[in-house]
Structure formats: C-alpha cells, structure tokens
Amino acid sequence: MSKIIAVAELRDNGLRNVSFETISLAKQWDDESEVVAVVLGTADSKHGQAMIHAGADRAILVSNEQLHTPTAENFTQALMQVINEEQPTGIVFGHTSIGKDVAPRIAGRLNAALLSDVVSIEGQKQDAVFTRPIYAGKAFEKTQGKTETVLVTVRPNNIEVLQTDSSRQGDITVKEVELVDLKTVVKEVVRKVSSGIDLSEAKVIVSGGRGIKSADTFEMLRELAELLGGTVGASRGACDAGYCDYALQIGQTGKVVTPDLYIACGISGAIQHVAGMSNSKIIVAINKDPEANIFSIADYGIVGDLFEVIPLLIEELKQS
Ligand code: FAD
C-alpha cells in the first residue's frame, strides 16, 4: 500500500493547526494511501492520538533530545530516517518557517519534486494538480509533481481540516533516531509574538501601517483585535517606523497570512504587502485616501480617518 507522510509541527507542546491541514491534503491527494503522521520534537502519545483523530491512519513520534530545539539540520536527518523506512510517495509539510527550511533539503536528498506554498488541490494520485500563488500573489500556477516521491508544503489556513473523529484508532510508534550534531543552538530561543495567537494561523488580524503614526496606536489595534478574537499584524512601513516589532510584518518579506478577516488600518496596499495577505477571506480597509491601492483588493472599504473609525468600532463591539 502506498503511503503519504504528513509532517506535524509542535508549538508550546501543542500541535499547530497546519498539522491537521497536512493530513487533510494527504487524504485529498490519495484517499487509498495510508496517511502516516510524523511528529518530531517533544511529542507524546496525545499528539499522535490527535493526528489519528484528525484523519491519519497511524502516527510516528520521532524521539531524540536534540529535536527539542528544532533546527533544519536535525529535523532533516530525523525525517530522512523515517522516509528511508517508510518509502512514501508523498510528503506534506506546513509552509511554515520549519517546513520552508526542511522540505527543500529533503527534496534535494531524494532528488524529488517540491511543490511549495500550495493552497488547493484538484484530482488525485499522479493526476493531482496543485495550485500555488506566484509573482507575489499576482497569479496562480497549477503544477504537478513527476517524481517517484513528491513533496508539498501547504500554506496555513487554506485547506479545510477534516472533522475530528475520536473513535478513530491507529498505531502510535516511537522511533528513536540517530543524529549527527551539525549545528547546535547555543543560546536560548526567544520567540517574539504579539499574543498567544500565531499570526500565520490567526482567523482575525487587525493590521497597522504607517498611517497609525505611533506605537501607542498599536495598543488601540490590539484592543480591536482582542475584541474580535484575533491578533495584530503590520506593514513594513509600520515596522520601519518603529511602531511595532518586525515579527509582526506581513508581506513578501514578512509572514504570509490567510485569516478569515483582515482589517488593514492605514496601509496603502503596496504589492509587497498585498503578497502576504491577498488570500485573506474578507479584507476590510480603513484609509483616508480613497485612491489607496488597498481598496482595489478590499471586500469592504472605509474611507476615513482611522483615529475616528477604530474607536467607533471598538465602542460598537463592546456594546454587542
Ligand atoms: P504607506 O505606503 O506610507 O501608507 C500609509 C497609508 O496610511 C496611506 O495609504 C495613507 O493614506 C494612510 N493614512 C495615513 N494617515 C491615515 C489616517 N489617519 N487614517 C487612515 N489612513 C491613513 N511592505 C510590507 O508591508 N511587507 C513586506 O513584506 C514588504 N517587503 C518588501 C520587500 C521589498 C524588496 C521592498 C522593496 C519593499 C517591501 N515592502 C514591504 C515595503 C512596501 O513597498 C511599502 O513601502 C510598505 O508596504 C508601505 O507600508 P504602509 O502601507 O504602511 O505605508
């Protein structure tokens, strides 16, 4: 029976949502293949169980203390040992920092096709056609992998996850791997986040641009984001001006996001920003310039001063 590996990712001891999207994509790709979830790092059986409930047929927890601090080098070595044993026809990663770093290394070692940043799939098995944005989101490319094993990275928040079924059963095995120390993280890893919500997986993002004019205004955006159950993001203009941390930057050289709702406040809509958020399901733009480019991609536009509009939105949401 052919196999597809779905690579899960852990964050703060929980599975990142994109892990479930890798399973869903694997199932859509070939519903007759065995879907094997691979969890690297500080995984335990509850993670394996969750992957099986989400649609995987079995789970492999890859164990080695060095994997507790993920590096592309040790993840690649660990995954290659699983791949050599399992001989999958497909491998699905999240299009995340780690997926973007590890997948090309594995593709290189296997001399296999890598289809990156996939947002949807049509057809099955060898006939499957994967859609991915190109030219900073200006166009979409439909592509097929032609090698024995094909690798795919999936853009978070684009593939509908399968309904969880807690009655699903499957083997969970622990695989010890041998790793050669190619690189060690010698200092503590300090993660910069705006809130507990991961920007690339957030359902609601309130994003500020240079038009917010100060770091203090960011607190107003944060309040709006929290009322909507979301988090804050930014344009590079806002980051360059020192209004917020670069960890929040969305765009071509920042994070790529696909929330259900993206509210752009004082952002002009430069192509490099749009590249990171144009796939958002609903885009709302607040800008005082009616000619601003952001309105050309917005579903709803408010032409006005954000310092008047946002407090009104906050007030309204507090009352509802
Ligand atoms: P501006 O273009 O200055 O726009 C500010 C907007 O705020 C204006 O439209 C204005 O009308 C509006 N405004 C002002 N005051 C108010 C108010 N009171 N109420 C309402 N609206 C108001 N940019 C990114 O964002 N992400 C990237 O990843 C990125 N990568 C890049 C990579 C390269 C190689 C290059 C060259 C550029 C990149 N940029 C990126 C920069 C990009 O080109 C733009 O310069 C940047 O996006 C502009 O940010 P902004 O829209 O916040 O600022």
TrEMBL record:
Q: Which domain of life is it from?
A: Bacteria
Keyword Membrane tagged = no
Per UniProt, FAD binds at 210, 235-236, 249-253, 266-273, 287
GO terms for MF: electron transfer activity; flavin adenine dinucleotide binding
Q: Which SUPFAM superfamilies match?
A: Adenine nucleotide alpha hydrolases-like (SSF52402), DHS-like NAD/FAD-binding domain (SSF52467)
Q: Name one GO biological process term.
A: fatty acid beta-oxidation using acyl-CoA dehydrogenase
Co-factor binding comment: Binds 1 FAD per dimer.
Domain Electron transfer flavoprotein alpha/beta-subunit N-terminal as annotated: residue spans: 4-186
Q: Please name the InterPro entries in this protein's record.
A: DHS-like_NAD/FAD-binding_dom, ETF_a/b_N, ETF_a/FixB, ETF_alpha_N, ETF_asu_C, ETF_asu_C_CS, Rossmann-like_a/b/a_fold
Which keywords does UniProt give here?
Electron transport, FAD, Flavoprotein, Transport
Region forming the signal peptide: none
Q: Which CDD domains match?
A: ETF_alpha
Obligatory cofactor(s): FAD
* Family label: Belongs to the ETF alpha-subunit/FixB family.
**Protein name (record):** Electron transfer flavoprotein large subunit
| Originating organism | Solibacillus isronensis B3W22
The gene from which this protein is expressed is: etfA_2
